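dumping this here before i forget
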Amino acid sequence: MAYPTIDAPYGFRPVNLLGGQVFAGSTRQMAIASGHATNIFFGDIVIMSSNGCINNATLTDSAVQVAGIFMGCSYINSSSQRVFGQYYPATITQTVDSSNGTVAFVADDPDLVMKVAIVSGTTTISGTLRAGLVGATAAWVANAGSTITGDSKQAILSTTGTATTLPLKVIDVVPDTTNSSGSFTEVLVTWTAGVHMYRGAAGI
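structure:
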């Protein structure tokens, strides 16, 4: 039987919730600051900033105040029409705290389980054995996404560990996309304790 090949990372894709609960596609609208200068792609991890707006998550570990996974956005275009986009194109200047603001749709459930590809660094897909993978903590790689597809290219590093500072925990492997050596190229992950802004004790 031929298995699909994962040849590039694609970001974080919600699958379900912890305990086997169904992810119904629910998202929360969160503001993007006027003039935000960096693209945000479908499947990117986003964090909450002290200005009450989401921001790109650039940390590979020790991440805090994660808001969730970016699932698209809407904004007012040059013809004064509200449009919906797969990704946020940088430097849109619009009023925050009004109906004309730029908003992101974020999968913000702190119990989210996400499918993600494994890389050895940047965008190179890596096959990894189950041993030392399931139950380990992991760092993510904040690759820039594609402005053509609008999709993320974020992934997790193959060098998993046990450090409590790492933001993600591997909870299972994805057997459907094992490589020719029998190694896993995708896993299911969730947030480690205190990383998500709804579960952290401190304010922002």
